[in-house]
Structure formats: structure tokens, C-alpha cells
Amino acid sequence: VQLQASGGGLVQPGGSLRLSCAASGSGFDGNNMGWSRQAPGKQRELVATISRGGDTNYADSVKGRFTISRDNAKNMAYLQMNSLKPEDTAVYYCSAGARRYRFTDYWGQGTQVTVSS
User: For the chain, which residues score pLDDT lower than 50?
Assistant: First the structure.
């Protein structure tokens, strides 16, 4: 499974960004997917997950501001980030699970999100 994240950038506080993750490879078949982030000096944090069937879960830190979605026909996952805060600044990674109930067995490269005025 290969995962390619894109869409990061510099945004002002209160702004929005949409991250995309393209999945490919013979091992990918609508697997569960997730988005994590890692800020400098901090541990990686799983912020949003979406199951094969579309069930979603969010970390408290992003609940109500971030929305994860997927397009199974295109093997894509997205993370819509609204009302961004400086503390959302991090490298964001997409991931996929190898089997049921798992979300982080495969990782893509990160994409930098910087929230600053």
C-alpha cells in the first residue's frame, strides 16, 4: 500500500485547508484510513479516522473543526480543516489499516501545515 499526502501550506489563524491522500497498491481495497499529525518535539497524534463504511472518529483537539471523508471510487481520503489555530501547526500524515479495526499500519509521507499570521 502506498499513500501520498498533499495539500499542506501556510494559512492564517481562522483559515481553512484541505488535505488529500491518494492510496494505491494491490494491498489497498477500501481499507480504514486516518490522519495523524506531529508537531516539533511532540508525539504523533491520531486526529481523525474513517472506516471502510464511512464511520468517523476525531480527537477532542479537532472535533467540530476538522472533517475526514473518503471517495472509495478514487481511493482518496481527505481532511477538511477549518478554524485553524496556531497549535494545529504540524506535519500531517495519512495512514491506512491492514485489517479491520486498524488505521495505522501503512503511512504516507507528511505534508506540512503551518498556521501563522
Answer: none
